[in-house]
Design goal:
mainly beta, four-stranded antiparallel sheet
């Protein structure tokens, strides 16, 4: 069984930065794409950044140019650094993993149904 645990959320002022972490517990050897999503109250969940098995990285329009996704395989940890935060970034941030490395995603940030494992989320609040 695989479990994902996010941390690093909190309250920050406009223009600030946060680095979110997602520790992956369990058997990670065959996991597929890893990604970050967020959901604000009353809004649909949206894809922010993904790290595919071939190390292909994709960013969603909402954070493109001000976010960096990275991972430390030795620590089984996925990171998301977001800079220049705005109140519109206020949301619960989730990391997710595809169960199999053989599952190919054409649009990793849009194919949310392909992600089997999800963390519990970490809240980010940006104040003006």
């Amino acid at each position: 069984q695989v479990q994902l645990v996010e941390s690093g959320g909190g309250s920050v002022q406009t223009g600030g930065s946060l680095r979110l972490s997602c520790i992956i517990f369990g058997d990670t050897r065959n996991l597929g794409c890893l990604a970050w999503f967020r959901q604000a109250p009353g809004k649909e969940r949206e894809g922010l950044a993904s790290f595919d098995v071939d190390d292909t990285i994709a960013y969603g329009d909402a954070v493109k140019g001000r976010a960096t996704i990275s991972k430390d395989n030795a620590k089984n940890t996925l990171y998301l650094q977001i800079d220049s935060l705005e109140p519109e970034d206020t949301a619960t941030y989730y990391c997710a993993a595809v169960a199999s490395a053989e599952t190919a995603l054409d649009a990793p940030l849009a194919q949310m149904d392909e992600y089997t494992y999800w963390g519990q989320g970490t809240q980010v609040t940006v104040s003006s």
